[in-house]
Amino acid sequence: MTLLRRVSSALPKVPEFAKRSVAPSKFPVHPLDAASSSSLVHGVHVFHCPDGVGIVAKLSECIASRGGNILSVDVFVPEKNQVFYSRSEFVFDPLRWPRKDMDEDFRKISESFSAFKSVVRVPDLDPKYKIAVLVSKQDHCLVDLLHGWQDGGLHVNINCVISNHHRGPNTHVGRFLERHEIPYYYLPTSLGDKREEEILTLVQDTDFLVLARYMQILSGRFLENYGKDIINIHHGLLPSFKGGNPSKQAFDAGVKLIGATSHFVTEELDAGPIIEQMVERVSHRDNLQSFVKKSQSLEKQCLTKAIKSYCELRVLPYKVNKTVVF
């Protein structure tokens, strides 16, 4: 993964600034009357092009000329490669700046700077990402994801939930899925049959997959045939304590910092580019039960945060870009 350094979008890009990290620039929103404020919509634009002069100014001018207000801009410059990355958040009135006009405006800027990538997303107007969730026996990540979706905190539609462990219709998860008409598929696996062909059939109409503690290794053939991103949650900070019962392994070893890592799935086990990580301190006052509870809490928070980052373009799709940027 390419390591990138953050520089302020408000500062000229000269070597002394490129060597240090500063917080994203904040642009104040001009006062708006109540009627116009209620009609404003949030947008995100990600830009990747050869480095040059005037890129930030041109992007800012584009948004401002359409009556939009920039909330923040993150600019990244690689250490040894003269390319430019930015992520802009802004609010705008869709009546003054229709969605199709926005795409055309950013397309023109993309052409003028020979951009490699220019992506704009308006979560409240654009179609939600369609996902499928794969899960094994443990429910904590799945339940947190379902409630986040129900509360509107995740801009996704859940096409289905697939599991290699049975859940009855009278369980908490079963009742939730039935109430919200989310299909649930029980596909028991064995050493000789991971049911991958059936899973591929079920997830054809999805934008990405989420492994919410799915304790099966997906084959390289599955990854190639699916062809889109898969997000996984892993206990701890990779790659410690592999194998069965990792929490007990860590507890018995006297670990003082526990964590969770969300990453893209690649053919190499638990070695895909990292999206999010979270940590928490434990001590001798913790028993195995509290240790596991804290670990599970981190896992579900980290997975939810990773999905939000993906949907809000804080991380570029791995299958398209082969690198994580934001």
TrEMBL record:
Query: Which Gene3D superfamilies does the record cross-reference, listed alphabetically?
Result: 3.30.70.260, Formyl transferase, N-terminal domain (3.40.50.170)
Q: What is this protein called?
A: ACT domain-containing protein
Q: Which InterPro entries match?
A: ACT-like_dom_sf, ACT_dom, Formyl_transf_N, Formyl_transf_N_sf, PurU, PurU_ACT
List UniProt keywords, sorted A-Z: Hydrolase, One-carbon metabolism
Q: What is the originating organism of this protein?
A: Stephania yunnanensis
Q: Where is the ACT domain?
A: 44-124
Write down the CDD domains for this protein, in alphabetical order.
ACT_F4HF-DF
Gene Ontology molecular function, alphabetical: formyltetrahydrofolate deformylase activity
Q: Name its GO BP terms in alphabetical order.
A: 'de novo' IMP biosynthetic process; one-carbon metabolic process
User: Cross-referenced PROSITE patterns, in alphabetical order?
Assistant: ACT
